[in-house]
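does this look right to u?? iron/sulfur cluster version
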Amino acid sequence: MSLLTVILSRSPSQDPRKRELEEQILAALSREPDVTVATIPHLYDFVEADESLRSVTGSLLVLAWLYPRAIHWTLDRLSIKGQYGNTQIPRPDSEKDEPKNSTNAQARTIWSLDLRDGDTAAMHIAEIQRILRDLRATTPAATSAPASVPKSEIGNQKSKIHRWYPVIDYGRCNQCMECLDFCLFGVYGVDDDGHLIVESPDNCKKGCPACSRVCPQNAIIFPMHRTPAIAGVPGAGVEVQKLDLSELFGAPAAAQLATAERNAALAAAEKEAKPKDNLDKLMDALDDAKL
Ligand code: SF4
Ligand code: SF4
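got this back:
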């Protein structure tokens, strides 16, 4: 019987320090009797068609190299829903805005921990042990769930495809549809109830975060973007986003910058679609030769 399933999302990089931290956490959890542990490839790269994560039932804790808000809404996108579990990992005051619950949240709780918090495994292990103590104290033995993940590794471990797509924070989204109007690549759509969805995520242009700048609610997250306000830092509300953008990017207002980014993505896409002329072929050959 298991009280808690812990999913550790591997770093997309091969950084040995990250691997070591992951292994230390896994080793400590292997000694906990009430925990089912599994590792997955980088959560953000998970494809929607892979149902292995959806088979996880009961209380769930996800460790990933992402902000907790990005983890929560990436899980929501994969139809892994639950109440947001509060944690006691210390964060700066500006990052205290915890995500609201997933749409159609189930009764179960999902905790999200950012593996970038702190330099050692000890803090994460201590927090998981605290959550376990609380669960043991509040869960009658008869209601412990059977281990919900049959294998220690789930998902396509061999996948080398690094994805790039927007993740929607539905706790903030007010359904204004500005992103739908703004994006020229058909990434967004609406569901049968007229609600915004990320319909064709892989149409998104790698590196383009343009629509996150025009969203009035700062509800669009690009978890792998270098700017914390765009990558889903918990406290990055609308005001922080505007301030962050003007400070970081200087002269262009957010909307101008977003338009420039989107148009650059469009020009790149058109160039890609155009048949290559002799000069393009020569440049490709020089690139291949690494001159
Ligand atoms: S622009 Fe932002 S708030 Fe408006 S629909 Fe898109 S995600 Fe939601
Ligand atoms: S980042 Fe660019 S390509 Fe991707 S959804 Fe937003 S506007 Fe469209």
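The first strand starts at residue 4 and ends at 9. idk if thats expected tbh
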